Records
---
Amino acid sequence: MSENQNPQGPSRDVARHDGDGTVAQTDRFVDPGVPEHHPRLADVDPKAAKRNERIIALLFAISCLGTIGSVVAYFAVRPDGTTPGVRMSTVLLGVAIAVSLFGIGFAAVHWAKTLMSAKEYTEERHSSSSSEEVRGAVQQQFKDGLEDSGIARRPVLKGAVVSALALFPLTIAVPLVSSVGGDWNVGSFRHTIWKKGTRLAYDPSGRLIKASDLTVGSVAHVIPDVPAEERESHEWITEKSKAVVLLVRMDPRDHKRDHREGASYDGIVAYSKICTHVGCPVALYEQQTHHLLCPCHQSTFDVADGAKVVFGPAKRPLPQLPITVDDEGYLVAEDDFNEPIGPSYWERLK
Amino acid sequence: MKALAARRHHRLAPVVLLLLALLVTGGVYAALAPSPAQADTASTADIETGKKLFQANCATCHGPNAEGTTEAPSLVGVGAAAVDFQVSTGRMPMQMNGPQAEAKPRQMDEEQTAALAAYVASLGAGPAIPTDEQVDGSKGDPANGMALFRTNCAMCHNAVGAGGALSEGKFAPPLWDTSGRNVYQAMLTGPQSMPVFNDANITPDEKRDIIAFLDEQDQGSAGGLTLGSLGPVSEGLWAWIIGIGLIIGGAVWIGAKSS
C-alpha cells in the first residue's frame, strides 16, 4: 500500500487513424490521479476536534438513553389486551430501540468522518491465482491419488461408485417431489359438491334461503347446505372454496338472459363467485348496473346478461348454478355447474 | 405591508406561503366539514309538511307524487329508512349529476328529514327507520360482526371499512364516520350501487353485530401507523418514497466528506 500516488501513470490509449489504417498510440486523456488531500476542520483546529468529540459522545449517550428507555418501556407499559394498550407498548419499544441503534450508527459514522484518519489510500490489484509451482503440485496430488485408487484398472469399482453416488439423491428427491406434488387428480376440479336438490344457505350462518326472502336488489353470499358438523371439517374449506355462489335478485324486466338456459328462477340468478381469470372471489356487485367486479384485476361481469365479460382480463363468463324452489319454498340447486369453475387449466376441456 | 413585500424573494418565502395555504385549506375544511347526523324518529312528523318539502325540493327529479321520472327512481315503497339515510347524510337533495350522489353537509334539519320520511313512508309500505336499540353497537357481538362483514361487505368497503373503488368513478365510501343508524339503513335499503341486505339475509341482530365491529375500528390498529388501511398502494408509496429516500439520504451522508 502506498500513499497518494497513482500506480498506473498517465493512461495511454490506442486510436486508429483514418485513411492509411495504421494504428497509433495516443494520449486521449490524462489520468487525473487521486484528488489533492484537503485537511478537515477537525484536523487543523483542535477546538473543532474537541467539538466533534463531544457530539460523538452525545450520540452514544443518546443511544444509552434509548436502551434504558426500551427496558423501562418494557416493564412500565405492558400490553394490557386493549388495542390502544398494545399499540402504546409496541410504539414505545420501537421508538426506544430505534433511538438506541441509530445513536450508535450516527456516532460511529460521525466518528469515522470527522476524527479518524482521512488520508486517501491506494490499494493495488494483484493476480488472484496461485503460483505455477503450487498449481502443479496440486494437480500432481490428484493424479497420484487417481493412480493409487486403481480405478482405471478396476471397472467394477468404477461402476459401483458411480451408481451409488448417482442413486443417493433419490432419498431426498422422491419424498420432496411426492409431497410437493400433492393431489394429481385434476378431475376433482370438474365438479363441486352442488348436486340436484342441495339447498342454498347463507354464508357464514348456514340459514336456508327462501325465494320469497330475497327482495329485488338483494344479493346473498351462498354456500351449499351441509350438516353443521361437516362445516367444521378440513375438507369443507376446499369444497367451500369451489362451491361459493353469489345469489342476486333483480327485476325480471332487467334480466336479459341466462348463461345457462333456464337456470334462473323469477329474476333470481346464482353465479359462481370464483373468477374465470385467476380465481379471485368476484363479489363487488353494483346493484344499479348489475355489474359484478373482481377486486384483483377489475374483470367485470354483467349479471343481467349471462355474466358475460364486459371489461378486464377474464375470458369466460362465470359458470351459472341452475336453481329452482322446492315444495317448501326453499331455493335448491337443480344440478352441479355444467363446466369447471375458476381459471383455465390444461385439462379443462378434455 | 412594505416589510412583507421586501421579503417576498426570501428563499423561505415559498415554504411560508405553502404552509399558509395548507392552514387556510385545513381551516376552511374543518369549518365546512359535515357533522354526524342525529335525528329523532319520525313518528310524530306531519305528512303534510313533508309533502310540501318534497314538492319544493325533490319533485323536479322524482316527480310531483314521487312516482319517478326518467331522471330518478320512484320513491313509492322505499320506506322511511331510505329517505332518512339519503337526506340525513346530505346525499339527497342531490347537488349535481355524477357517478354517484356523495355525502355532503345535510340540507334538511332533523324535523324536515322526519317530515319527508313520514311523507314517503305514507306512499307505500317500506323499511322503517331502525330504533336506537337496534343500532346500538355496544349491544352487538363484534366477532360475529367481523365474520359477516368479511363475507358481505369487505369486498367493497375494505376489510376494516376504509372504503374502496368501484367502476367508472363510483366508490364504496369509508364507514368509520358513518353513524350506526346510517349503516343499518344502508344495509336495509341498498342505496345507489349497494345491494340490499334485508332482514332475512342479515337479521337485525346480525346488523347490530356489524355495527359493533365497525365501532371497534374506532380504536385503530394495534400495529402503529395504518397508512389509511388501504393496503399496497399507500404502503408501497411509503416504502418507495420515504423508506428508499431515507436509505439514499443515509448513503449520501456516509459517503460525503467532512468539511
---
Amino acid sequence: MTTSEDTPVLQPGHTYNSITEQISNIPLTRVRKISRGWWVGAFLAFLGTMLLFYAITYLFIQGVGIWGINVPVGWGFAIVNFVWWIGIGHAGTLISAILLLFRQEWRTSINRFAEAMTLFAVANASLFPILHLGRPWLFYYLIPYPNTLGLWPQFRSPLAWDLFAILTYLTVSLLFWFMGLVPDLATMRDRATNKWIRLIYGILALGWRNSARHWHHYQSVYLLMAALATPLVVSVHSIVSVDFAYGVIPGWHSTIFPLYFVAGAVFSGFAMVLTLMIPLRKALHMEDFITARHLDNMAKIMLSVGLVVAYGYMMENFWGWFGDNPYERAITIDRYVGAYAPLYWGLLFCNVIAPQILWFKKVRTNGPILFVIALLVNIGMWLERFIIVVQSLSKDFLPSSWHLFTPTIWDIATFAGTIGLFLMLVFLFVRVLPAISIFELRELVHHKSAESAGTETAKNTVAD
Amino acid sequence: MTTDNKSQEQLDLAALRKRLASQHGKNYWRSLNELAETEEFSEIVKREFPRQAQFLEEFSRRDFLKVLGASLALAGLAACSPREIGKILPYSTAPEDLIPGKPLYFASAMPKDGYGLGVLVRSEMGRPIKVDGNPRHPVSQGTSDMFMQASILDLYDPDRAKNITAQGTVKTWDDFSAALAAQSGPNLRILTGTVSSPSLADEIQAVLAKFPQAKWHQYSPLSLTRGALTQVFDQPVSVQYHFDKASVILSLDSDFLFREPGSLRYSQDFGIRRNPSESNGSMNRLYVVESSLTLTGSNADHRLAVRSADVETFARALAVRMGIQTGAPADKMPGLDWIEPLADDLLSAKGSSLVIAGERQPAIVHAIAHAINQALGAVGNTVVYTDPVESNPIDQLASLRDLSQDLDQGIVDTLLILEGNPAYTAPADLDFPGLIQKAKMSVYLGLHADETAALTTWHIPAAHYLEMWGDLRSYEGTTSIVQPLIEPLYGGKSSLEVLAILLGQKDAKGYDLVQKYWQNRLKESNFEVVWKQTLRDGFIFDIGLFPQPIAPQVNSSVLASVQQSLASDVLEITFEPDPTIWDGQYTNNAWLQELPKPLTKLTWDNAALVSPKIAQSLALNDGDIIQIKLGERSLEAPIYVQPGQAENSLAISLGYGRKQGGKVLEGTGFNAYSIRTSSAPWFAGDVQISKTGKTYQLATTRDHQSMEGRDLIRETSLAEYLQNPNFAQDSPDEQHSLYAPVNYPGHAWGMSINLGSCIGCNACVLACQAENNIPTVGKDQVSRSREMHWLRIDRYFQGSLDAPSVAFEPVPCMHCEQAPCEPVCPVGATAHNAEGINEMTYNRCVGTRYCSNNCPYKVRRFNFLKYEDDTTPSLKAMRNPDVSVRMRGVMEKCTYCIQRINAARIQAEVSGNPIKDGDVRTACQQACPTQAIVFGDLNDTSSQVRKLKDSPLTYALLGELGTKPRTTYLARVTNPNLKIKDQA
C-alpha cells in the first residue's frame, strides 16, 4: 500500500514554511480569536468532566454499592470502561512505533494526534482500577513497597500484573509522545510572540537548538524508543485479557483471549482515531495534511484487525458448541437468546457486519461514512467488553446464584464523565500543542522534493 | 452548691417524685431545685459557670491528667450502672466463674406460642449473645430453629417499647399499679395466648378466685385446633408423634416439620430416618396431601397437591378403604389412585406407621386420622395421647368470641391483655380493635408499641424471655424454668409481675413468684438443691410433672358426619403462618424478614401464592397485584407463582402488613388477617380474584428455579441405591493435577452436608448470622442480589411445574484446597492456612471482588455499602466479640467458624489434651435439627466427618473443576413407593 496510490500523503504545493505556519498558528491563536465551535465543544466536555468528579465524589462517600454490581456480577461498567479505554489507547503506540519501524511515511500526519489520544484514553482507563475498589484509599496495597508488615502484593494475580502493565504503558507512551514533541515545542518557542508563552514552550523544549548533533541523537533515541514501545502494544492488552482468561468462569476461561483482545484493542483504537480525526481535520482545515490516503490506510487496518476479531468470535462460538463443556455451551446459548442477547447481536453487527463495507475504496475515502463506521466499531467494542465481563458473570455454574446486572444512574454518569474528560483533554491538546508533527511533515516535504528533484538535479533550498 | 432558703416557693415534692420515677437511664440530679427546674437553679448554674471556667484555666498539666483520670473512672462506673443504685464494689470480687473473654452458658426456655423450647444461652460479660438448643432438653436436644436463633435480635431490638404509657403519656409502674388496683372492677377479663406455664396458670387461678366475676380467655392466632381435638375425643388430649419410630407417614395437610409445637423434635426424629447409609438401608417414607407447598411437602416422597378443602375427601376415601365407619367421600378428586398403594403401605408397616392431620383441617379429618392410627396400631407406638400439656385447654376461637360479646355489651371493667397483639391478629369479623376500646380500662403487656398498644388505655413494656423469670412446658410436658440473662433493658415486666398487682403484691419480683410457686409445688425438703439443679439443667426432672398417657376413643358421631364439599372448580384461599415471621410476632425482626422463605425465597414480603395454571389463565406474573375478595372483605396483594401449588388454591401467609410496632416492619407485606374471619380461619371457598393492573416489587434471592440439567444435587431412590450404592461417585480417572497434593500434617478441617436429611428449615442460616455478626441489608439491597448470608440454602425444583419435587442444598464456603479465589486476589487477602481453611483477611482486603467473580459457588459476600450498624447502642451489645465486624468495601464469607476452632485450640493448649472430635462444632452444625451438617478433622480417622467422607454417597459440588472442596455433600436418597406413578 505504498506508491501505487493516487492520493498523496501530503497535498502538493506545501513548503516548509506553509506547513509550519498552518500548524503552529492554531495553538498560537489569541484567546479572543478562538472559534466559537471550540468554546462550545470545550464547555460541553467540561460539563462532562464535572459530572465525572461529582460521580467520583459520591462514589467515595457511599461506596461501590451505588453502582449496579452485585454477587454474582462483581464487575460492571467500571471494568467494561477500563478495558474499553485501554483498548482505545492502543492505536497511538501502534501508529507511532510499529508504523515508524515499518517506515510507513503516511503515519507522520497522524502520529502526534494518535499518541495524545492514547495518553488520554489510558489516563481515563487507569482511573477505573482505583474507582472500582471497595476501599479505594488502600489502592497502594497493590504496589510493591517496603513496609513494616512485610507484606507484598500477590504476584500470582493478574490484577497485580495489570498494575505494572498499565503503569509501564502510561510511562512509555508519555515519554514517547513528549520526545516527539520536543522539536515542535522549539518551533513554537521560536514563533511565540508573547513572553510568557515563549517561556513555557521554552522550558518544555528542553533547550532544543536544532543542531545537527541534536538531530543525530534524537533520531537514534526515537527509533530506540519505538522499538521499546512496540512490545507494549501486545503486552498490555494481553495482560488485561488474562484478567479474564485466568478465571474459571465460563465465557472467561479461554486461551484465545490474548490474541483476540489485542486485535480488539487495535480495532477500537483505530476506530477512535478515525472518530476524532475526521471531524477535527475539517474543523482545523487540515485536509492538506490528513488526506484521503490516510483515511484509506486506516480503514484498511481497521478492516483487517476487524477480521481477526471476527475470527475470535467465531472460535468462541466454536468451542462453546464443540468443547463439550456444558457451562460454556449454556453461556453461548445465553448470548444468543438471553437477557443480553440484543447487545450480543448488536456487537456482531457493529464489529463484524458493518466494517465489511470497508472493502470498497469509495467508502474508505469517504469521511462521513467512515466516521459512522468508526463510531459503530467504538460502540461495538464497548458492547463486546460488556458481554465478556457482565454476561459471563451473570450465569455461571450454579443456577441458584444467577442474577442480572442493571446499570444505575451512577454507572452511566461515571462512563459519560470519562468521555467528557477525554474530550476535554483533546480540546485542550489541539489548543495548546501542535496537533500534527511539524518537523516530520517538513521532513516529508524534504523527501518529496528530493524525489522529484532526483532526475533534475536541481536542489531547492528552503530557508527555515 | 449553695442552697437558697429564703423566699423559696414550696417545692411540689410529689410532682418531683413522679418526674424522677418516669425518667430512665442514668439521670443524676444535683438538687431538688434542679429537679423542679426552677429559675433560681438556672441562675445558680449560670453564676457558677464562670468560676468553673476560671478553675479550668488554672489547671496545670498534671492536674488536668488527674481530673481526666478521675472522670474516666467515673464514666466507667456510670456506664455499667444498672437501673437500681446499690453498693459499688471493686471488681476484685468478680461474679463467680466469670473470666473476661470466656463465655458463660445458662439454661433457660424460650416461649413459642405458649410452649417452651429448652435453650442454652451464651453470655459474654453479662450480655446474652446467642441462643441455641439445650442439649439436655428432650425437645431441642441441642438443636434449634430459626425463631430460637432470631430471638436474640428481639431482645436487643431498638424499637422495643421503653416506657409505661397511659394514652400516650409516660407513667410509672407505681402509677400503673395504683390505677390497676383502684379501677379493676368485678368484671375483669384476662386475655392470654396459650398458657403452659404452671406458675402463670396458678396465678391466674388465684386472680380468678379473688375476683369471682373475672374470666380468663385465650387466643393465639395459630393454635385453634384445640376445639376440634376436644370434639374428636370428647376430652382434652395432647397428642405426641414419634417420627423416629415411624416408617410410613401420611400427612393430611400437616406441616409437622415447621408449624407444630413439637416441630423441632419432629424434625430431628424425621431426619434421622432419612439416612439409609447409616441405618442399613432402611428409611421412612412420607406421603403428603396438601394445598400449598410446605417444608413438609417438599420433603415428601409422594406429594399430592389438592385444595385444603379436598383433603377431607381424600381422608374419607382412605378411611373407607381402611374399613373405618365414616361417611363416604362426597365427590371424586384426582389422586384417589393413591389410596390403594398407600393403604397397603400403611398396613404393611402396622405399628410403625402413622397419620397426622394438620392444624387447619376440620374435626372430621382429625377424627379420621386418629381412627386410622388406632386401626394401624400406632397408638402407644408412634402416636401417644396424654393429658393436655396446656394449663387450661379450651377452644380459643370460642373463647375470643365470648370475650368479644362481653366487650360489645360494655360490661367489661378491666381488660388485661398479656402479650399477643390481638388487635392485629384477631379474626376480622370480630372487630376486635373496636371492642378493646369498649372496656372501661384496658391494659396491654407487650414488647412493642404495636397495634394493640395503640388502642389500650395502658401499655406496659413486656420483658423479653431473656430478661425475666418464669416457667414453661414443652409440647410433650417437660417443664423448664425461664431464667433471665440480663436485667430488663427497658424496664419490662413479666405477666407474673403484672398479675401480682391484682393479688396485692405490687412489687413482687418475678424470681420470688416463680420460686415460691415451685417450692409449694415440689414440696421437696431439699428444695434449694433441686432448684439449683433445675436452673443448671434448664428443666425440672420430676416424673410427676410429666403428663400421663391416656387412651381416648374417637367420637363416632364426628366420624359419621356428612361431608360438605366444595365444587371442584371453585377457588379457595388458605391462610398459613408465614415461613419466617410466623404469625406476625417477629415482623420487626430484621433477621427473619431477610431470611429467604424456604420455598419461595421471598424476603421482606408475603405474597399470594398461586398455581402456575391459574397464573397462566389469568395472565399474571410475579408481582402483579390482584384484588382478593372474600365475602365482604377484600385485600390487594401481589402474586407469586408457586410451583406445586394446588390448582384452585390460593395461599397467603399471615403476619405481614403491620402498621405499628417498629421501624423494621414498616412497609413490609400485606395483611392477610384483614380477610380472615372466625368462621373460616384456615381456608375458605369462593374467593374472587381480579387483576388490578398494578405491580409490586418482590425481593427474592432466587431468579432461577431449575438446575438446568446440571449435576448439582445427586439423588436416587432407595431401591436404586441399594443396588448401586456408589451411584454418586465420579469415574475415578476424572481428577488430574499437575501438582503434587498439599500435605496437611496437623488438623485438616472439613465438612459434610447430608442432602438426604436436610429438610431446608433455615435454622443454620440464622445460626450463622447470629454467630458471625452478619448484617442485614434491607429489601432494596436484596433485590439487587446483595444479601449477606454466608450460608444459603439453594432450593431446586425438578419435574413438572404443577407437581415438582424439591431439593434443598445448603451452600457455605467450600474451602477448596485449590481455591479459585486465592490466586486472583492482588493483595493476598484470602489465603489458605495450614489446616486447609480458606481464610479471609479483612484488614488486607481492598475490595476488587475478583475473588467473588472467580468463585464457582458464589459464596463470597461483599459489603457494597456500609451495611454494619455501628450506631445503634443496643445492637452493639448483641455482637459476638470473637468475630470482627466488617466495614464497607470488604469481602467476607464463611470461615468454618474459625473463632470456635481457635477457642478449642486454646483450650487444648491450656489443658494439654488434643482437640477431640466434637470439640469444634460450627454454628450451622450446632443448629441443624437433623444433623445434616457434620464438621470435624479429616486427619482424625475416628472422626464422624472422616467416616462420612469415606461414604460412597459423598460427592463434591462441581468437583470436575478440580477445586477439591473441603465441604462435600452426601447424595440424597428418597424412598418412593414404586406402585405409585408420579404425576406428569
